[in-house]
Amino acid sequence: MARQILPNDSQQDSVLMRVHEGMDVYNYDDERIGKVESIFFGSVSPEEAATGTGAATADNPAMRERGFLDDLANVFRDDNLPDELRERLLRKGFIRIDSSGLFSSDRYAMPEQIAAVHEDRVILRTDKEGLIKR
Predict the structure, then answer these.
(1) Is the CA virtual torsion 45, 65, 132, 134 positive or negative?
(2) Quick one: pLDDT at residue 49?
(3) CB 3.0-4.6 Å disulfide test: which of 20, 34, 123, 125 passes with 97?
(4) H/E segment holding residue 47
């Protein structure tokens, strides 16, 4: 069973903005999980957009670049995620982690699973088994 550290709401608001591709990702016990492969900031509902409480990525497809839509369509192409889980990732945002190890599957981490972001690394609130497996 994965041990988890409780999230701090103020950290969740901007945590994905501080993450960049290529950062090393560690669990709460300072064990390396992998590297950040990509980041998706999430989409917002009209209510969230009106109140400013939603994620950072634009909900209106006309506001997105064509290349971004192509990339987004490919994010989950080979994944066998349930629709509900896929929608949750797209709504809340996530980082996709290229896991370490020859036979390791890549993982997804949602903002609330990120404890801290330093200059060169992301520290998670959970271990590798607590992440969504690709």
Answers:
(1) positive
(2) 54
(3) 34
(4) helix 46-51
Helix (H) or strand (E) holding 12: helix 9-14
- Residues 98-134 as b or e (16 or more Cβ within 10 Å = b): bbeeeeeebbbbbbbbbbbbeeebbbbbbbbebbbeb
- The per-residue pLDDT of the chain, averaged, comes to 76
Cα angle 126, 131, 134; round to 5: 160
Please compute the mean of the pLDDT values over residues 21-30 and round it to a whole number. 96
Question: Alpha-carbon distance 126 to 23, whole Å?
Answer: 17
Length of the chain: 134
- Show me where the domains of the chain are located: 9-133
- pLDDT (tens digit, 9 = 90+) per residue, 73-121? 555 655 678 888 888 888 889 999 999 777 778 999 999 999 999 999 9
Do the bridges between strand 24-26 and strand 121-124 make them parallel or antiparallel, or are there none, so unpaired? Answer: parallel
Distance CA 80, CA 116 (A): 29
